[in-house]
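TA notes, week 10

Several of you asked for a full example with nothing omitted. So below is the full record: structure tokens for the whole chain, then the designed sequence directly under it. When grading your own attempts, check the secondary structure regions first.
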């Protein structure tokens, strides 16, 4: 990932580039249908050159506790992605690190000692205004994701999203599935539906020139029989 970052930054010096920064404030952090921690701030910075992008995303909670990870909540995810023209197909590689505050060994990558999870993803969006369904498959191929025998488990997650709008509200339906046993990551020993969600996004007009995007997401995890209702707001500069 570090080599990719250096190459990417070098490329941005000579080619047209896009930069995105924003921060989300959420009432709770729920990942793929699984509760992580309470009120959190989640910043994002992204760089894009043509069809290639590099994104850094993080999450830090306010009370310093994580129900699912057992340490003060702190996560940093780095993702490199390439979109194949207008085909709707995107390939991504991500470094997911959620060891928590105080687990300082970020640059430790030994397979059986690292806190990193390396994940590959392949996503496809149907190029249709009437039916813009997207399907993505993510598999952890290296790092901390091990089974009981100490071998790579290749934990996977499949997600389908369908966006639509009702008046001024942008809505998105999500169905997330764990296709086979992934006890360490998702808590299931076999196929399970872990994430059914409906997200609504709109904007509050504060002044003539400034609006504040907000969202509400209702989430159900059928496997754990748990439900969540998350409120969030997004702060980002205008790029116009």
């Amino acid at each position: 990932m570090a080599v990719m970052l250096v190459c990417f930054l070098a490329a941005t010096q000579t080619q047209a580039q896009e930069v995105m920064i924003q921060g989300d404030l959420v009432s709770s952090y729920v990942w793929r249908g699984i509760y992580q921690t309470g009120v959190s701030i989640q910043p994002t910075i992204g760089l894009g050159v043509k069809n290639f992008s590099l994104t850094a995303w993080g999450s830090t909670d306010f009370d310093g506790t994580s129900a699912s990870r057992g340490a003060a909540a702190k996560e940093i995810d780095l993702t490199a992605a390439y979109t194949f023209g207008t085909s709707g197909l995107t390939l991504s590689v991500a470094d997911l690190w959620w060891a928590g505050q105080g687990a300082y060994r970020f640059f430790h990558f030994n397979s059986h000692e690292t806190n990193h999870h390396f994940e590959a993803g392949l996503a496809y969006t149907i190029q249709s205004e009437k039916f813009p369904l997207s399907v993505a498959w993510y598999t952890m191929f290296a790092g901390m994701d091990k089974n009981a025998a100490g071998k790579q488990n290749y934990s996977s997650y499949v997600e389908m999203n369908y966006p639509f709008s009702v008046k001024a509200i942008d809505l998105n339906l999500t169905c997330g599935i764990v296709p086979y046993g992934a006890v360490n990551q998702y808590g299931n020993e076999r196929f399970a539906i872990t994430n059914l969600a409906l997200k609504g996004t709109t904007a509050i007009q504060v002044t003539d020139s400034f609006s504040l995007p907000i969202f509400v997401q209702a989430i159900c995890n059928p496997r754990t029989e748990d439900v969540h209702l998350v409120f969030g707001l997004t702060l980002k500069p205008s790029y116009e």
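The chain has one domain: 2-14+32-235. Use that as a sanity check on your answer.
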